[in-house]
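Example 3.2
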Amino acid sequence: MDLNAIYTELIMEHSTSRHNRRKLDNPDLSEKGHNPSCGDEITLELKMNKDIIEDLAFTGQGCAISQASTSMMIDLIKGKNKEEALKLVETFIGMIKREISDEEELEALEDAIVLKNISNMPARVKCAVLAWHTLKEAIGEEN
């Protein structure tokens, strides 16, 4: 099985997975993200414990890439503090914009590294970064 097939499988798995797609009871933060160019819409909900993102989940709809990217981001960010989360957001966006290509740095993204090749598809970039920008809005504006 070639890498592209593995990547495609991982994206499809995450895009249909339900484990991060839910509403939180009494979230501390809620942020909507919308990509008008293809109609992706998500709402991120976060439970904070001081600086730690204790839980986060999303609702909404969109293409496989936006949904998979959101799910991968949640798996990666849950349990991290705001600073760590924002650094991972910058790393992901940097990877998609091709500003960061250092493999060691990108390994921090875990599963989300499979979205690296989206940078070759300009029309899909907004789909991949939607959740990451939305998270940045949610936790970045508090500082």
